[in-house]
Amino acid sequence: MSFIVENVWNFTDDFGYFENFTGTPPMDDDFAYSPCNLDRETFNKLAVVITYVLVFVLSLLGNLLVILVILSSRASRSVTDIYLFNLAIADLLFALSLPIWATSKVKGWVFGTPLCKLVSLLKEVNFYSGILLLACISVDRYLAIVHATRTLTQKRHWVKFICLAIWALSLVLSLPTVFMREAYIPPYSSSPVCYEIMGINTTKWRMVMRIVAQVFGFLLPLLVMLFCYGLTLRTLFEAHMGQKHRAMRVIFAVVLVFLLCWLPYNLVLVSDTLMRAHVIKETCTRRIHIGRALGATEVLGFLHSCLNPLIYAFIGQKFRHGLLRILANRGLISKEFLSKEARPSFAGSSSRNTSTTL
Fold this sequence. Notes:
This protein has helices at residues 2-15, 45-72, 79-95, 98-107, 112-146, 156-180, 202-239, 242-247, 249-276, 284-303, 307-315, 317-329, 335-342, and strands at residues 181-184, 193-196. By secondary structure, the protein is an all-alpha fold. A hairpin with an 8-residue loop joins β1 and β2 (193-196). The longest helix has 38 residues, at 202-239. A two-stranded antiparallel ribbon has the order 1-2. α2 (45-72) packs antiparallel against α3. The model is unreliable at 1-33, 38-42 and 343-355 (pLDDT under 50). It has a single domain, classed as Rhopdopsin 7-helix transmembrane proteins (Up-down Bundle), CATH 1.20.1070.10.
């Protein structure tokens, strides 16, 4: 009996039908060949679907407002605002795929291979572009505050090329997953899934792809942010730059929320990678816990796409003023109300080198 169990386990590892390269939450038929007595209901489907729908609505409305405010603030638009504009576009594009992901939780993947590849692309590009844009913002703030230089921060045509390079790099990092993803029905299952198919070397290729993606798409940008913001904070506190510190609150909040949403998922993914590589011992209990954690933390990562507009609304004084100005121009609020709400904060903006529209 132990011989049969061992060979079934090896079959699962060799063909990798249900391994979680991109962290897709476990399907009902995950680990169908596993000798472990796995709990099939690793998360509440209804709760996940409701969460996806709420995130879709909030992200759609919020990021559209962010894009509208930045586009309407052409005169005061900074380099950081251009990065945040691209971040809002990435979140908006990803939000459009959430109804599809929500449906797949209930009915399985009924949308075919082309849509499988498309929504997987949106998800991967959203994550990579998000952290790369935040890394670029950290470098921009570092140059503007620590070195007090305007050479790069005021040349907007360079920023446009940088943003194009970020989108291109995000696309390159996402392509291996997209190329390998297909809609198919696993053996002994009636529910189709959207998963990577890489033949007999599935496990090895997934390990290579996962390590490359985590190093270049998460670890290195994270180290850049920690270095830049560490020195930036030290400079602000040493120089007692109170106003400039207030101008940085939105940026720090955006970075913090991104890390709170995506860091748990990546830490679990690292744990799963170490387990698959047999660096840490693989047991049934550990595999169950990591599978559940991947599903839960990915939902948390999906939640991130709707949170940035809320940060801008509650912390970004200039964003609120820009939104109120748009509403006043449309006659939805009075000019008196706009003047009253803007008076306490908008007049006291920081210098051009550190301020942002949001």
